[in-house]
Amino acid sequence: MALLGPIIKTALNLHETITATSDHVVAQRKVLEYLLKTAKKTSFGLYYDFNNILEDDDMEHAFAEAIPFYDYHKMDEQWWSRMKEGKPDITWPGVPKFLARSSGTTGKKSKTIPVTDEMIAAIKTAGTRQVSALTNFDLPTDVFESEVLALGSSTDLSEEDGFTIGEISGISASNIPEFLDSFYRPGKEISSIDDWDERVQKIAEEAKNWDIGMLSGIPSWLEMMLKKVMDYHKVDSIHDIWPNLSVYTSGGVAFEPYRSSFEKLFSKPVQIVDTYLASEGFIACQQRPESSSMQLITDGGIYFEFVPFQPEYVEQDGSISNNAPVLTMAEVQPEVDYALIISTVSGAWRYLIGDTIKFTDVEKAEIKITGRTKFFLNVVGSQLSVLKMETAITELQEKFNTSIKEFTVSVKKIDGEFQHVWYLGTETETSEMELAEALDLSLQEANKNYKVARSKALKGVQVHKVQPETFAQWNDHNKKKGGQVKMEKVMDEEKFKAWEEFVSSL
């Protein structure tokens, strides 16, 4: 019987009650004021006259009017490049110690994003709040004194031009307080192994020595790790190794497409809790069992703005037009797709993070990620978000009693007509034609814009089945193998051509 579990759970429950945000609009105003006051003497703050914005009675809208939108490339070229040369006080006071290398799925070159001490502190605080919120779920008390296995990027960070560089999960793990070391697995020694396969092998070898109660990581890579552990110990369930495993905090991609295959690895119930940690900061996490939505962390060093994600405001490359309307937390509406704009304690300002979200509960500031600004299929007006695609894939799995954990799609012109071409990672015996017809019908029923497109410019849908491991092989082929790498759900013409050539070579 757990002795410490009830005590820890009570302490976490008290922490969750004390730190809960009751008014997200007020919290956001305080964050914006803090950001502006702290950075007003930086090069960026002087250039855009933060003092003047602070004196305005309508600070939020004055801020939006004074500063244009920035994406990574614009921010880096105009401002962060000077900081990376060692110059202080460019977009945030001082010079940061860390740069987060984005493991993003778009772009040919890795991005490096500043991570300040304030941001590391904010991520720690958000992580503590996430763990505290687990007291809202019906979990056995044993789990609160069990260990946590976080499968992220290597903590063996590199040194370059005076900066320590790594992916955000690796930076966060390398900054875990000493008093938590005894709860954290796989531990700093194994986490520092850069080679993914070698790291997973070491986890498998050590697994029986640990009492894991919680897991964290991107579903595709975590599933591969769990299977490796089970194969190594020749068991049928991960609970044969870790009987107290009760919680999995997912993140990075939607969990639903993986649910059926994950459940085959478990012999006991496991609570799935969603999180939203990006290279730019800890953005949201699920707070209650009644909803699978995540609550924006509105008091954690990030100020949020929202642009309605409509064709007239979005450029072909996924950027936002300068005339697009911008809304604050006080102005958003539920069930509307918004491009997310953030300003942070790491010196990102009115920064297009590339994700789209919708509010499911405005008062509680609860959201779902609906896709990427670059990942909407809208070449022929179909306006398909990743969320709608994933919902259709889930319906496909249920209809044909199969598993489809990964997919990618693009638009191709075949015989002079546009078609959506899908690749599904599945071992189902259902024919590609049946899958295409069911997928097409599901999308038409769920999305009126897609239905209109199918009656006009979008003339067909193709489905190609590939082995599920093809997607991991593709990432490996592109030297993107690791715990934080996500598969592109939508590819542009150039990348899709390379993908099809790769598939045909297998």
UniProtKB/TrEMBL annotation:
Domain (GH3 C-terminal): residue spans on this chain: 390-494
GH3 middle domain: residues covered: 297-363
InterPro entries membership: GH3, GH3_C, GH3_M
Family matches, as Pfam families: GH3, GH3_C, GH3_M
Entry's Gene Ontology cellular component terms: cytoplasm
GO molecular function, one term: acid-amino acid ligase activity
Listed name of the protein: GH3 auxin-responsive promoter
Native organism: Nonlabens arenilitoris
